[in-house]
Write a structure and sequence with these properties.
CATH class: Alpha Beta
Largest sheet: 15 strands, mixed
Number of helices: 12
CATH superfamily: Alpha/Beta hydrolase fold, catalytic domain
Radius of gyration: 22 Å
Number of domains: 1
CATH topology: Rossmann fold
Number of strands: 21
CATH architecture: 3-Layer(aba) Sandwich
Length: 477
C-alpha cells in the first residue's frame, strides 16, 4: 500500500480554492463547481499509477474528492466512450468536490432529487470520491451509482457520503456519470464514427470500474472484492452492467436498491430515429453531422423536453449486445451475488422478487429485502415514510449528512437503527461471494433467497426474516 499520511507529521495545508457563479451563456464551457471555502485541512497523500493525489484526513478516514477517472468528455470527446486519464507530474489536489454532470435545474420538488442538484454543472464531470480507512489493507470496495431518473443527481450528495462505511472497513467510491442527452443519445452520424454508442453513462460506470482495478490498491483497497451498487436509476445501471461484456471480471457482487427492472431494451436504429425526429426542435436537420451535433450547447439539450431524459436502453451491438432481461432468461448474465429490494411506500417489490427468483437456486444467489421502517418526524404533516430513497440514510448510515433526516424526532433511536441496517450492507460488501448468509449486527442472520425458503429481510420497526410471497408489491396492493 502506497499511502502516506502528511497528517501523521502534524501537517495541515491551507487551500485557497475559487468558487464560480453559474453561467448559462450558450456555447461556453461551464466552469467546475467548488463546494467549500478556504480552510486548513489535515492531508493524506496517495501515489497512484497516474500520479500523486492530495486528499483530506478526517479522523481515521482518508477522503479524496473530485478524483478524475476519465478524460473530460468535452469537444470531440462528447458522445464518445470515456477515455483513460493521462499521467500527471507533481501533485493533484483532491480536496473539493467537482462539478456534477450537466442536467436541468428544475423547480418541482417532486422531481427526483428534489428537482436537481444546486450549483454549476459541467460536461467536465467524470469524477469520483474515495472514502477509505486510514489504515486500510485489502479492504472491500463499493462503487456507488446515484439515482435521479438518469437525468438528475450527482455522486457527492449527502446521502452517499462514505464516512461511516470507511469507519467500518469498507472503501466507498461514489461516482458521477453522464446524464440525460449527454449520456444517452444516438444518431447515425455518431454511429458512423465506429465507436460504441448510445449508452455513455453506462460506459462511464465501466470506466470507473477500470479505474478501481488499476488504482484502488494505492488506497488500501482490494480490486478482487468490488461491489457495484446503486439506487433507483443507479440500480437500473447496476442491472445493466450484469449483461455488459466489458464489465465482466471488474466486480464481484452487486446491490440494487429500488431499481430491479428488467427491460426489453431499444434497437440502435430506434434510438437514432427518436433523436433524429427531435433535432428540428433545436434547429438542426434530422441528418445533422457529428460536428453540428457537438456544436449544440449542453444547456440547449438538457432543457429541451424531447432530449432532457435521454434515449436509454440502446442495444448498439458493441457495448450492449443484449439486455439483462434476455441474459437472465438465457442464464448468461454475469453471475454474482445480488442484494436487492424496495421500499414499501414506493412499490416495485414484485420486480425485485422476480430478479431474486431468476438469480436464485442455480446462480450465485440473491438477498432480498423490503424496507418498511417509518421514522417519526416532528412535523406530523410531513412524513416521508418508507418511500423512494427513504432507505439511503440508513443503508449508508448518513443521518448526519442526508437531507432526508431533517425533522426526525428521536435522532438517537434512528441512529441506532441506521447502525444496524448499515451493518447488513457492510457485511455483504465484506463477505465471500460463496456465502449464503449475511451476518448483520445484533446477531441477525439474513439468508439468501431460494424458492424453498422464500426468504426476505423485512426492515420494519424490528428486523426479521419474512416470506416474500406474503408481502404486497407496494402501498396500494
Amino acid at each position: 500500500m502506497s499511502l502516506k499520511l502528511a497528517a501523521a507529521c502534524g501537517a495541515a495545508l491551507m487551500f485557497v480554492l475559487p468558487t464560480f457563479a453559474a453561467s448559462h451563456e450558450e456555447g461556453k464551457h461551464q466552469p467546475k463547481v467548488v463546494f467549500s471555502a478556504t480552510q486548513p485541512v489535515d492531508t493524506a497523500v496517495v501515489e497512484t499509477p497516474k500520479g500523486t493525489l492530495i486528499g483530506e484526513k478526517v479522523g481515521d478516514v482518508n477522503v479524496f474528492r473530485g478524483v478524475p477517472f476519465a478524460q473530460p468528455p468535452v469537444g470531440d470527446l462528447r458522445w464518445k466512450p470515456p477515455q483513460p486519464i493521462e499521467a500527471w507530474e507533481g501533485t493533484k489536489t483532491a480536496i473539493e468536490y467537482q462539478a456534477p454532470c450537466q442536467q436541468p435545474q428544475l423547480q418541482d420538488p417532486s422531481e427526483p432529487n428534489g428537482g436537481g442538484v444546486q450549483g454549476v454543472k459541467s460536461e467536465d464531470c467524470l469524477y469520483l470520491q474515495v472514502y477509505a480507512p486510514a489504515e486500510a489493507e485489502k479492504a472491500p470496495v463499493v462503487l456507488w451509482m446515484h439515482g435521479g431518473a438518469f437525468f438528475l443527481g450527482a455522486g457527492h450528495l449527502g446521502s452517499y457520503v462514505g464516512m461511516e462505511n470507511a469507519k467500518k472497513g469498507v472503501i466507498t467510491v461514489p461516482m458521477n456519470y453522464r446524464l440525460g442527452p449527454m449520456g444517452y443519445f444516438a444518431h447515425p452520424s455518431l454511429s458512423a464514427e465506429g465507436d460504441a454508442t448510445g449508452s455513455y453513462g453506462d460506459m462511464d460506470a465501466v470506466a470507473a470500474l477500470e479505474w478501481i482495478k488499476e488504482n484502488i490498491e494505492s488506497f488500501g483497497g482490494d480490486p478482487e472484492n468490488v461491489t457495484i451498487a446503486g439506487q433507483s436509476a443507479g440500480g437500473f445501471l447496476v442491472m445493466n452492467l450484469l449483461s455488459t461484456p466489458s464489465a465482466e471480471g471488474l466486480f464481484h457482487k452487486a446491490v440494487v436498491q429500488s431499481g430491479a427492472g428488467l427491460t426489453d431494451g431499444r434497437p440502435l436504429d430506434s434510438a437514432e430515429k427518436l433523436v433524429m425526429e427531435g433535432l428540428p426542435n433545436i434547429g438542426l436537420p434530422e441528418d445533422a453531422t457529428a460536428e453540428q451535433l457537438r456544436a449544440v450547447s449542453a444547456q440547449t439539450l438538457v432543457y429541451d423536453p424531447v432530449f432532457r431524459s435521454g434515449i436509454r436502453g440502446t442495444v448498439d451491438g458493441k457495448f450492449f449486445t443484449t439486455t439483462t432481461k434476455a441474459a437472465m432468461e438465457a442464464g448468461t448474465e454475469i453471475d454474482v451475488p445480488v442484494l436487492l429490494g424496495s421500499n414499501m411506500g414506493e412499490g416495485g417489490f414484485n420486480r425485485a422478487k422476480l430478479v431474486a427468483q431468476m438469480a436464485g437456486d442455480e446462480g450465485a444467489g440473491a438477498f432480498l429485502y423490503n424496507f418498511q421502517h417509518q421514522a417519526a418526524f416532528r412535523d406530523a404533516t410531513w412524513k416521508k415514510g418508507p418511500i423512494h430513497s427513504a432507505e439511503l440514510m440508513y443503508t449508508f448510515d448518513t443521518l448526519d449528512t442526508s437531507s432526508w433526516a431533517n425533522g426526525i424526532e428521536d435522532m438517537d433511536a434512528e441512529a441506532a437503527y441506521a447502525d444496524l441496517v448499515s451493518s447488513c450492507w457492510v457485511a455483504f460488501y465484506k463477505m465471500d461471494p460463496m456465502d449464503k448468509t449475511i451476518s448483520c449486527a445484533d446477531g441477525f442472520e439474513w439468508p439468501a433467497y431460494t424458492e424453498a425458503n422464500d426468504a426476505v429481510a423485512v426492515f420494519g420497526d424490528e428486523i426479521e426474516v419474512g416470506k416474500a410471497s406474503e408481502l404486497p408489491d407496494g402501498p396500494n396492493s
